[in-house]
Design goal:
2 copies of one chain form a homodimer. Chain A has about 325 residues and is α+β, with helices and mostly antiparallel strands. Chain A folds into 2 domains: about 5-145, 60s Ribosomal Protein L30, Chain: A (2-Layer Sandwich); about 160-320, Phosphoribosyl-aminoimidazole Synthetase, Chain A, domain 2 (Alpha-Beta Complex), CATH 3.90.650.10. The first copy, chain A, is built from 12 helices and 12 strands. Chain A has helices at about 5, 10-20, 55, 65-80, 100-115, 170-180, 185-195, 200-210, 225-235, 245-255, 260-265, 280-290, and strands at about 35-40, 45-55, 85-95, 120-130, 135-145, 160, 215-220, 235-240, 275, 295-305, 310, 315-320. The first copy, chain A, has a 7-stranded mixed β-sheet, with helices on both faces. The mean pLDDT of chain A is about 95. Chains A and B meet through helix 1, helix 2, strand 1, strand 2 and helix 3 of A and helix 1, strand 1, strand 2, strand 3 and helix 4 of B.
Chain lengths: ~325, ~325
């Protein structure tokens, strides 16, 4: 019988989902970034859980405080993608037996730092002994129904856009995991992209207020992978004709003779937002996010044809369904 | 520096709490069984997380389906103690790499079974690879503020009562963990107490509606330990003059020459409710819970003096602050 590794995360979620009774009044699909239920009129309670596991989510060089902060950011990023303000957080911790008092303190400090950065309070939790570090966060917020942006609404002709540049975390992970070198001045930035990720909450909230978005997701599983998720959910394809690659990633790629496209498309652990926008509201949407201090960069267009292609300099390449997936690396 | 084992769970929670900014409008204390925030008028959102860890929470003989179901019951029991109806659940899973497709299926089935037993729907979650089985549940429900029963309200003179008998899980764990034997007819019941625990949700909801409760907790960490928690939170002591011991536990104790009091006081993993009741509302409270199909048994009285004593047959014994605590066994 198939083991976890050969199943992959998507199939595992499907198997579990098949065992579950479906709540009649669910607002978002089971596979969207957050869960939401209607609580009165058009008000929703929005929920999210995401678990950080030491072995797979904490690269060498990441401190406990950074790991705990990252566990929060992972969850906040999904709220950002849906345009919902997170309010409170609970945390279930599995702590290794050899943890010291200072380790516990650092973990608590990282949780608080991550939460407060986004206006969230940690209001409860649970601690346990475990063989590996486990930080399981649970986020709750509230939203008006019409502000929530799902993965499913993209239509052919919609503009595809992102909130930032790509490639730094993939390069940073190559430094931290594979020991690749980089000049001092860019090494710090590349490592920081991995160690101190930021969720685009301000941007996500500004975007959801414009009414211009038709679909949204974060890029935590990689730009390519997330485009496929949007494509599956909305039943559209994409032509991508520009990928904003961070200049540090370009330089790192040049030094190590790597493909900067590869770093940007298949990196993962990068918490930008990928959105589709109604063309007639593009200017307004862009203006609103800029007013909030963020940026929105056009990268392509949604198509009726279900393929996802990269079209640059007159050349067309298929973007592969590849990314970082638990159990399947 | 102190390691986890010597710190104990209470101290660990305290260290983490010291790192956290306190939310101004929190309704319950950080150490209560659930967390709650005011969402409008007198309406509260009530949240709980509790993590099941394979190594420490799943005894030999417990199937995956039972383990997943138990993870739900652990969380529902805390809602029961606070008198709040749980509504939806998210689950973060850490699954061992050698898990097979059928193991995933069983886990999903157990989660659904546990949830539906108490009217809850599983509406989302997250899966990860981990070195041990981790089932981290997050429960959300809503409550009117005046119905929520904290740990803090017990006053001297209040009646202490429980919703069921004790001792079966301690005996069951001795069978499952230490291989002790028992006659067929009671062995099944003792093992079932461990493998198929039940949360007293119906009872908790009936109790919170009476207005008779001053404090409430579940007995998941053991009767003695939970009495100490109530005592700490409410600043009272207790004289206990009756502990309802299950007849199967009495027989098991007799066969193995064990103290049935020990099995009942220090067992843990038993999901009864322990409540304090205003004396003038005792009859009404008891009637209400019986109407719901449950039972309420007087076991003692709250006292101004902070000690917790067992007073039976004219003899007085101090009940020890002992129970099942993570990291300290």
């Amino acid at each position: 019988m198939a083991s976890l590794e050969s199943l992959g995360e998507k199939k595992i979620i499907q198997i579990i989902q098949e065992q579950l009774d479906v709540m009649p009044s669910l607002v978002l699909g089971f596979k969207d970034d957050v869960s939401a239920i209607s609580i009165d009129g058009d008000r929703l309670a929005v929920l999210k859980t995401d678990m950080l596991v030491g072995e797979t989510d904490v690269p060498p060089g990441m401190s406990l405080k950074q790991a705990a902060r990252k566990a929060v950011v992972m969850n906040v990023s999904d709220f950002a993608a849906k345009g919902v303000t997170p309010l409170v957080m609970l945390v279930s911790l599995g702590l290794p037996r050899d943890f010291k008092e200072d380790d516990v303190k650092e973990t608590g400090a990282g949780l608080n730092e991550g939460a407060r950065e986004y206006g969230v309070y940690v209001i409860g939790g649970d601690t346990n002994e475990a063989s590996d570090l486990i930080i399981s966060c649970f986020l709750l917020g509230f939203s008006k129904k019409e502000r929530l942006v799902s993965r499913c609404g993209a239509r052919p002709g919609d503009i595809v856009a992102v909130t930032g540049e790509f490639g730094k975390t993939a390069a940073g992970l190559k430094i931290l995991l594979e020991g690749l070198s980089a000049p001092k001045k860019i090494e710090k930035k590349l490592k920081e992209a991995v160690l101190l990720p930021k969720a685009r909450l301000k941007e996500g909230l500004a975007l959801s207020g414009t009414g211009g978005l038709t679909a949204s997701i974060d890029s935590s599983d990689g730009l390519a992978w997330s485009l496929y998720e949007l494509s599956d959910a909305s039943n559209v394809g994409f032509i991508i004709n520009r990928v904003p690659v961070a200049k540090e990633a370009v330089e790192f790629a040049r030094i190590h003779n790597l493909d900067p496209w590869e770093l940007s498309l298949y990196g993962g652990e990068e918490y930008e937002l990928i959105v589709t926008v109604k063309p007639e509201l593009w200017e307004k949407t862009k203006r609103e996010i800029e007013r909030s201090g963020g940026a929105l960069m056009k990268i392509g267009v949604a198509t009726e044809e279900r393929r996802i292609r990269l079209q640059v300099d007159g050349e067309t390449r298929i973007i592969k369904r590849k990314g970082w997936e638990h159990f399947k690396m």
